[in-house]
Amino acid sequence: MQLTEKELDSLVCSLNDFLCDRYDGACLDADADRYRVASGVVRWLLSDEARVTSPEVLLPKAKHLLSFNVVDEMTHTHIVRLVLERTKEMEDGDFLQLQNFFWTTIGYAIRDNPEIIRALEAGGVRVEIDPPEGAGGQQTAL
To answer: How far apart are CA 133 and CA 97, in angstroms?
Structure first.
């Protein structure tokens, strides 16, 4: 996986925050501390925390094709496969506009259907119709 400079900086900042939070007093000259920090870093790198350091990693902007299966994990029943495919005549902006249309349509369907909102919330998903101040148009991953 090739990271952009911005993604690399984000990963470095996230790792730095992790080290400050968990290993602030560690002495890398001491074998036990060095091993403890190395073990923690490896676990962190393999965790979801390292993978979702930016909205682009969480919801990447597709260049040619965006598709995913929606499957009931409990029963393994296929529900639907959603596919956005770039045609040869589509410019970059056209394909990004298609992706925006896709997510906007899903957002309006959720917002405008109280039954869907209740079902999502019953399953543990918080649906915010009016997001907190300054959160418009942004994804958050912690």
So the answer is: 26
pLDDT for 116: 92
Distance CA 20, CA 6 (A): 21
Residue 84 near residue 62, CB atoms below 8 Å: yes
Grouping H, G, I as helix, E, B as strand and the rest as coil, residue 27 is coil
DSSP 3-state of 30:
coil
Beta carbons of 34 and 47 less than 8 angstroms apart: no
Q: Considering the entire predicted model, what is its pTM?
A: 0.48
Both tokens of 40, joined, read 């923690």
Distances (CA, A) of 114 to 48, 123, 133: 31, 14, 23
| Long-range contacts, stretch 104-110, CB < 8 angstroms, 24+ apart | none
Question: Contact 84/66 with Cβ under 8 angstroms?
Answer: yes
Using CA atoms of 106, 73, 46, 39 in order, give the dihedral in degrees to the nearest 10.
140
Q: Is 47 helix (H, G, I), strand (E, B) or coil?
A: coil
**pLDDT tens, residue by residue, 8-60:** 777 778 888 878 888 888 888 888 888 888 888 877 777 765 555 544 444 45
